[in-house]
Amino acid sequence: MESLLAESSGGGVRMATLDDGTEVVVKSGEASAVRAEAAGLRWLAEPAVVGVPEVLGETEGRMVSTRVPSGSPDAGAAERFGRGLAALHAAGAPAFGSPPPGGPVEAWIGGARMENVTGSADQDWPSWYAEHRVLPHARRALGGDDLAVVERACARFAAVAGPPEPPARLHGDLWTGNVLWSGGQGWVIDPAAHGGHRETDLAMLALFGAPQLETILAAYDEAAPLADGWRDRVDLHQLWPLLVHAELFGGGYGRQALAVCARLGG
Fold first, then answer.
1. What is the pLDDT of residue 118?
2. In the record, what terms sit under GO molecular function (predicted)?
3. Residue 266's pLDDT is what?
4. Under-70 pLDDT residues of the chain
5. Is 145 a catalytic residue?
6. What pLDDT, on the 0 to 100 scale, is given for residue 7?
7. Per the residue annotation, which of 145, 173, 190, 228 is the catalytic one?
8. Cβ contacts of residue 260 below 8 Å, gap of 6+?
């Protein structure tokens, strides 16, 4: 881990080559963020159903993992990823909001703080999602009348969330930039892993247009059929990442989030 050669810097991420020729990624940053990512990668790798970089070492604020070269998916790779993602979600989590084993409560999604907090024993997903995902980011990104719109939409979540689902093992930040394609399969990187609703990962894939998206979704639905009306719930599950983007970048993401709230009845 200490013998890193041919290093090239890129912010908190460096590519390096070990003495034995292994190409690795070296990430450094805030200690809880690195710890959360390492724990998330290990948790997602545990079922061995999708590609996940191997964590080779971790110290305070620094992690070394295997490097995954990135290409483009064909239909076969997309189908395998869809089935694998269904199996990953089915591996489950102890509760909504549960962190990966060894992961901190104070976690991150991108550059935004995210708490992995489980609800009470009888808390359902809609109320947990409102309390621990949507509202914390809305309060940091919005104010006044705009925040009130989000709060009214949260009151509608139970009516539009569809049938109850068990906690799924989520990647948590599954936008297209966090899916790499190599060796005929999809690989996931940079997780914000936690126990959540499986439709959230799928909605994030759609948010910025993952390649071969319909092939992925069809394979997923064949392997683990989605509840009726799931396409109508994409907005609901995209509200959280839109508010995260509004918190980090402002601008149009806040307007998109408010438009979603209007469609949900906020």
1. 87
2. kinase activity
3. 60
4. 1-11, 121, 266
5. no
6. 40
7. 173
8. 153, 235, 236, 238, 239, 242
Q: Is residue 145 part of a domain?
A: yes
Q: How far apart are CA 126 and CA 159, in angstroms?
A: 9
- In a domain? residue 38: no
Q: Does 135 fall in a domain?
A: yes
Domain CATH for 177? 3.90.1200.10
**Domain total for the chain?**
1
Q: What is the pLDDT of residue 251?
A: 79
